[in-house]
Write a structure and sequence with these properties.
It is a single chain. The protein folds into two domains: about 110 residues, Arc Repressor Mutant, subunit A (Orthogonal Bundle); about 35 residues, no CATH class. A three-stranded antiparallel sheet has the order 1-6-5. The chain has a three-stranded antiparallel sheet with strand order 2-4-3, with helices on one face. The two termini are about 15 Å apart. About 50% of the residues lie in helices and about 15% in strands. The chain contains six helices and six strands; from the N terminus they run αβαβαββαβαβα. The radius of gyration is 18 Å and the shape is flat. Helix 1 packs antiparallel against helix 6.
Amino acid sequence: MSRAAAAARSVALRDQLVAALRNGDLPMSTPELAALSGLPWHEVGWWGDCTLVHDLVERRDYKLLVCTGQQRHSVLMPPCPGSVYPHLRRLEALGIVARVDFADLAIPTRLQLIAQESQRGNTRPVYWRYTDDQSDVAFNAVLDAMERAG
């Protein structure tokens, strides 16, 4: 992949991440953002009791593709959070997104986020929020610089 193509993919991915945060009511975790990033989901085969597999699929927001009824399942899983984390860190460095400090959140919001993630099985998620509309100027400048370099 050429350098320009890699840069274009990074810009597109970061745009998806910013759009998801901008449109969200609450801060979002890295796993949530990975699922909404537009990166491809991957299919895995699972063997196991249907009740347990279906419960896990529902709690983790995976997609059940096939259930044979005989413990064989095909499940669609979102991209790994590690695939978007470096991009979120770069957006953070640019001042476009920020990590959420739980101490700054109202207690009901904190409890709601903790309940969501514990149900999904995420034990230590990092939460992110869109900073404000002023960062659009900085983001556009980054996009312009990348287009000129490409």
